[in-house]
C-alpha cells in the first residue's frame, strides 16, 4: 500500500521526529488541526509503514559508552555463506549501532559504540574470530558534531 503524504502529514511527522512523547493535543495544536484527524493520520502512517516503533534516544556518554568508532571493512569474500555469517555476527553484537554495505573500495562501514579502546579491541577480536575479513580500519570519532534521526521532510 502506497501512502500519499501531504503537507499536514509532513508537519505531523516533523513534530513526532522532534518529540514523539508529545500528547495528541500538543501535536494537533502545533500543526493547526484537531486531535482526531491527527490521530487518524498517525494511525494510517503507522499502518502504511511510514513510521517504525517509538523509541527513546539515550545519551551514550552518560551511560559509559564514551568511544565511537567507524569501522571500514574490506573483504575478499562475497559468497552467500560469508554474507550470512557476517550478517549474523553484526546482528549479535549490540555495539554495532549501524552497518552499511557500500559501493566503492570499502565493502562495509560500521558505527560501533563502546566504553573505550580496550572494549573496541575485544569487539574487533570477536568479529575477526567469527568471520574472515581482508582489511579492517577503525577510525575513532574525536567529536560528534551533528547527530540526528530526523529526516529532512
TrEMBL record:
GO cellular component, one term: cytosol
UniProt key word Nucleotide-binding: no
GO biological process, one term: regulation of DNA-templated transcription
Database matches in InterPro entries: ArsR-like_HTH, AsnC-type_HTH_dom, Dimeric_a/b-barrel, Tscrpt_reg_AsnC-like, Tscrpt_reg_AsnC/Lrp_C, Tscrpt_reg_HTH_AsnC-type_CS, WH-like_DNA-bd_sf, WH_DNA-bd_sf
Recorded GO MF terms: sequence-specific DNA binding
PROSITE patterns: HTH_ASNC_1, HTH_ASNC_2
PANTHER family listed in its UniProt record: DNA-BINDING TRANSCRIPTIONAL ACTIVATOR DECR (PTHR30154:SF17), LEUCINE-RESPONSIVE REGULATORY PROTEIN (PTHR30154)
CDD domains: HTH_ARSR
Record key words, sorted: DNA-binding, Transcription, Transcription regulation
Protein name: Lrp/AsnC family transcriptional regulator
Transcription regulation keyword on record: yes
Protein's organism: Lutimaribacter saemankumensis
Amino acid at each position: 500500500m502506497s501512502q500519499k503524504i501531504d503537507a499536514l502529514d509532513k508537519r505531523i511527522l516533523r513534530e513526532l521526529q522532534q518529540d514523539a512523547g508529545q500528547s495528541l493535543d500538543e501535536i494537533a495544536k502545533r500543526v493547526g488541526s484537531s486531535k482526531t484527524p491527527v490521530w487518524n493520520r498517525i494511525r494510517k502512517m503507522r499502518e502504511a509503514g511510514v513510521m517504525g516503533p517509538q523509541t527513546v534516544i539515550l545519551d551514550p556518554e552518560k551511560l559509559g559508552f564514551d568511544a565511537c568508532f567507524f569501522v571500514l571493512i574490506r573483504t575478499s569474500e562475497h559468497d552467500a555463506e560469508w554474507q550470512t555469517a557476517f550478517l549474523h555476527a553484526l546482528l549479535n553484537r549490540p555495539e554495532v549501532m549501524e552497518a552499511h554495505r557500500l559501493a566503492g573500495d570499502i565493502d562495509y562501514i560500521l558505527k560501533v559504540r563502546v566504553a573505550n579502546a580496550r572494549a573496541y579491541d575485544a569487539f574487533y577480536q570477536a568479529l575477526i574470530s567469527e568471520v574472515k575479513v581482508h582489511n579492517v580500519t577503525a577510525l575513532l570519532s574525536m567529536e560528534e558534531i551533528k547527530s540526528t534521526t530526523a529526516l529532512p521532510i
